[in-house]
Specification:
Structural class: alpha/beta
Helix content: 40-55%
Number of strands: 5
Shape: elongated
Largest sheet: 5 strands, mixed
Strand content: 5-15%
Distance between the termini: 99 Å
Number of helices: 14
Length: 357
């Protein structure tokens, strides 16, 4: 034993924070270095003969560091063999038990006769995921079609207005059964869980992507008649010399024959429909989310008229300090080729729109 080893071992014994298992191992080695025999060491440390021999041998092989760690021991539970993992993976191709539509981790573990963790490990190692469906495979196609709309956001056409239009239907005029108490020190604001319903309204909104302003109209229903009335309001609000590119979803009222006839009478307006299941491409959805969070969710309204007035005040307040919509393209997206493709797509869409009439 070197002087450095002895100093280190004595420091371990003197340290009050040292684990006791490290202390008695160190005392075995120090007593051996002092010349004590096995029986004397057993009496001083209250350890068995095999324990004394084990840690003497460990110090001779690995030094002080060998006393401070345990050797890796095999698990008491025998691991499952490859046949169990193969059976779990094979179950992913079979029908789930009972009246269920898909496999879950616990159902898979129960059918294989193992616990949840081995079932998950077997599926992860085989890169098998029985719970997703084909909707996940449709997302790349949606992103490819959505590149056209992203081009309108990133590089809008010159001398044109890009509007994101949608309707927020069935906005409920809810009044709480008791007035809420304001926030005070040590207590949050209160709001009752029950409410009284006083009718609904529908908000038609058009977000100007370049300026951030919103044109909104509250109406009782959301049919093609109300949509045409809203288009007439937009026609009056947008300067006559500018083209209007409208991004909207493929709702049935937006493709009604009377709406198509309206488009034929207003050639400067062009519709760009978002793909199915891709409402995230419509920028006005973000405005609807802010409206719900900041004005509607905690509001109390005694009637539909009160609700419409609150929405109109929020629109006026929003338009006093508007912020333009900024699309953040992915790092792999090139804006210039995307913009050129957008211009070609706009021209083809305008030609197709004339064919509708």
């Amino acid at each position: 034993m070197t002087t450095a080893d002895r100093d280190r071992l004595e420091a371990i014994v003197a340290d009050r924070n040292s684990p006791q298992k490290h202390v008695w191992r160190t005392r075995i080695v120090l007593a051996t270095a002092d010349g004590l025999g096995t029986m004397a060491i057993m009496q001083n440390t209250a350890m068995s003969r095999t324990a004394v021999w084990r840690w003497q041998e460990r110090f001779c092989e690995e030094g002080v560091d060998g006393l401070l760690r345990h050797k890796t021991r095999p698990s008491r539970v025998k691991p499952f063999g490859p046949e169990v993992a193969g059976r779990i993976v094979a179950l992913t191709l079979a029908e789930p038990p009972g009246e269920t539509t898909h496999w879950t981790g616990r159902a898979m573990a129960k059918a294989a006769g193992v616990s949840l963790r081995p079932a998950r490990l077997a599926l992860a190692r085989a890169s098998a995921a029985p719970h997703p469906n084909l909707q996940a495979l449709q997302r790349p196609a949606v992103y490819g079609e959505g590149a056209r709309h992203r081009g309108l956001y990133v590089d809008p056409p010159a001398h044109a207005v890009v509007l994101s239009i949608d309707e927020k239907s069935q906005i409920q005029a809810l009044d709480r059964t008791q007035p809420g108490l304001p926030m005070k020190k040590g207590r949050a604001g209160t709001m009752t869980h029950d409410y009284k319903r006083h009718g609904t309204t529908t908000l038609f909104a058009a977000l100007d992507v370049l300026e951030g302003k919103v044109i909104g109209r509250c109406m009782q229903r959301h049919r093609h008649q109300e949509f045409i009335r809203f288009l007439n309001a937009i026609e009056k609000a947008v300067p006559a010399k500018k083209a209007v590119h409208v991004i909207l979803d493929n709702y049935a009222a937006h493709k009604h024959p009377k709406v198509i006839a309206w488009l034929s009478r207003h050639p400067r307006v062009t519709f760009h429909f978002t793909p199915t299941c891709a409402s995230w491409l419509n920028a006005v959805e973000g405005f609807f989310a802010a409206l719900t969070k900041r004005r509607l969710r905690r509001g109390a309204f005694v009637g539909a008229v009160d609700l419409q007035a609150a929405i109109n005040r929020y629109l006026a307040d929003h338009n006093t300090d508007p912020k333009p919509f900024r699309w953040k393209p992915t790092p792999t997206t090139s804006s210039q080729p995307q913009a050129e493709g957008t211009r070609r797509w706009i021209q083809s869409t305008s030609t197709a729109q004339k064919d509708w009439s």
